[in-house]
Amino acid sequence: MDILWAALLMLGLAIGLSCLIVLFSIVFHVEEDPRIDCVSKMLPGVNCGACGYAGCHDLADALVNGEVKKVTACKAGRRDKNFDPIVEYLKTTPGPNGTTVEVTL
Amino acid sequence: MQYIVSFILAIVSYMVIDNVILSRYFGICSFIGVGNKIKSALGMGLAVTAVTLIAALVCWPLYNFILVPANMEYMETIVFILVIASLVQMVGFFIKKKSISLYKTLGIYLPLITTNCAVLGVVENNMAYDFGRSMANALGTSLGFILVIFLFACIRIRLEGSNLPKAFKGVPIALIVAGLMAIVFMGLGGIVDLGSWGLI
Known about the structure:
The complex is a heterodimer of chains A (105) and B (200).
Chain A: H1 2-27, H2 34-42, H3 56-64, H4 79-92
Helix pairs in contact in A: 2-3
Chain B: H1 2-17, H2 28-34, H3 38-67, H4 76-98, H5 100-106, H6 117-126, H7 131-160, H8 171-186
Helix pairs in contact in B: 1-7, 3-4, 3-6, 3-7, 4-5, 4-6, 6-7, 7-8
């Protein structure tokens, strides 16, 4: 019986806190380049940090902003699965200012 | 009057004498990690302060009014971690909105406040105290964190331009500096006698 109450307590706390987090993410929402999200979905998503950035999202940010020119900075990805689609996507999709980004393998 | 004086003394005591980094060895990861630039050190200090204060404010009533009456004290660690992790997430949103450059400088160390044992250590210690003293603990500890990480960043800026043997460059000399700072802070021990104010 005790374990049920403990689980209920955690459930209630988690629901309350997650509502607060959702509220915060809406109030403090930051407009981002929509390409960053798409590119970070195309990366392997293992967040290994081997590229020198804190996670896949940060590398995607750097790729879209032109800080990193070579998509092979990502050590965990594979060419056919990750790199080719990213190069293709960034070549064809213009950002909010209308220009595309050129990255190489 | 007695209460106010003992509150201030407790803050000073937790800030410099029982310093969270240099004498309790909590929060070393971010201390070494972001203590190389003054701006990132101060940002980290303020983020940890915000998380510690709100966590102490939330966790004390949570423990004393929910967990203790329900006989679920054994749940304290997981409950506190849940609260701290959510707070870190919210502080992250806040910093990202207010200063994207600070968000970028802090990088991975910002979500890692979740596992900063300084925060959990304060909250866990507070369970034995009354509300006033637990607030003094939270405030003093986070002020001590800011103070030490700021001093450390200042020293490391000076070290970057100095002529060091190659083997000591970077983190090794930083660790030696941290050890020397701990010795210096040890010299402050005993300047506030908490016992005579009925605090221990």
